[in-house]
Write a structure and sequence with these properties.
32% of the residues lie in helices and 13% in strands. The chain has ten helices and twelve strands.
């Protein structure tokens, strides 16, 4: 039986420093009989030398395009726009199965080349729960940015985060940075929607550690949304995972000039989806200018919607996430027998069927 090859690609996104595979994990995969190829990267938080020392085969950035067709290409964020035909199985966060912007173009690339897409977001057990996610650190960083932005709004000074985001060396360094923005003794209040999930727990942890009073909402509180309650907090952190049509948590016409709410961090960040519960912006915000003014009829609310928040703590985020991924990378050779990969492939097939039907209609 031919060895399975897992090929870790260099990320196309210049700000992406995380990795779904650690050098120690690569060593475990090779011990399990899997060939591991690592594309060199000057961005990845773990150096090329660590992978080479682990015994991995090293390749140049972008070499995955000409890899053997049975290699499984592993990454995190979006693929470059070329090649137009994708011949491999790819594992990454594609953000295409909920009909987000560009979903048909992406799926067509796989169908044209005969490849397949194993979207990490749909790696779920038979209980429907995701087995690997960056959620905790996404919520953690989303709340951290919101807190710093609120302090700057309160002090009526230039936004620190809008001077450009840079990854923190550690969670301790991030704590020190937040403390450096504090003015006076007043602490904000914050509402975390989706408080029971991974992202929500990360947001709550850093907010409470910095003395913030946190209101925690789950599904029960969003069945009939109390928008006055939302507007009566200083900060809103949205960590809700929405998979169907619901009334918006806040729309532009809900925000008033006298609203207490000053900062929103949309950790879930799904502006291209029809299911977006915060239709206050049209595209994710960037590292250069992470805070923008939300669409509103009256009041000014700053909105942060960075779609790769855990990259701002790449070491901690990579260690946690790669540890979750490793057991499933080990079962890739027999993925038709692993419910997680079976469910992931079913989600891809369902999305392709939906695209085909929409084209026919």
């Amino acid at each position: 039986m031919k060895k399975l090859t897992i090929w870790l690609r260099d990320e196309a996104r210049t700000t992406e420093r995380r990795t779904p595979l650690l050098p120690e994990g690569a060593k475990e995969l090779m011990a399990a009989g899997i060939e591991v190829v690592i594309e060199k990267s000057d961005k990845r938080i773990f150096t090329d030398a660590l992978y080479a020392d682990a015994g991995c085969t090293m390749a140049s950035p972008g070499d995955w395009e000409t890899a053997p067709t049975d290699a499984v290409i592993l990454g995190l964020k979006e693929l470059p726009p070329e090649p137009r035909s994708l011949i491999h199985s790819h594992i990454y966060f594609a953000h295409a199965f909920k009909k987000q912007s560009g979903w048909q173009t992406l799926l067509s690339r796989f169908l044209r080349g005969g490849g397949s897409l194993l979207d990490i977001e749909y790696m779920k057990g038979d209980d429907g729960r995701r087995v690997a996610a960056f959620g905790f650190w996404a919520g953690y960083m989303g709340a951290a940015l919101a807190l710093m932005q609120w302090y700057d709004r309160k002090a009526e000074r230039t936004s620190f985060i809008n001077q450009g985001l840079r990854p923190s060396d550690s969670a301790k360094a991030l704590d020190d940075l937040i403390k450096s923005r504090v003015v006076g003794s007043e602490q904000p209040t914050a509402l975390v929607i989706g408080a029971g999930g991974r992202s929500g727990s990360g947001a709550i942890k850093i907010l409470e550690r910095h003395g913030v009073r946190v209101t925690k909402w789950g599904r029960a509180e969003t069945k009939d949304v109390d928008r006055e309650a939302i507007l009566n907090h200083d900060i809103l952190i949205n960590c809700a995972y929405v998979t169907g049509h619901i009334p918006p948590f806040l729309a532009p016409y809900h925000i008033k000039a006298d609203s207490r709410l000053k900062v929103i961090s949309d950790v879930s960040c799904d502006p291209f989806s029809d299911y977006n519960p915060l239709p206050l912006y049209s595209a994710p915000t960037c590292w250069k200018t992470p805070a923008i003014t939300a669409k509103s009829v009256e009041g000014r609310v700053d909105l942060i919607a960075v779609d790769n928040l855990p990259s701002l703590l790449p070491m901690e985020a990579s260690i946690e996430f790669a540890t979750m991924m490793l057991p499933y990378l080990k079962t890739l050779a027999t993925r038709t027998q692993d419910p997680v990969w079976v469910n992931c492939d079913a989600a891809y097939r369902h999305a392709c069927d939906a695209m085909t039907k929409s084209e026919v209609a």
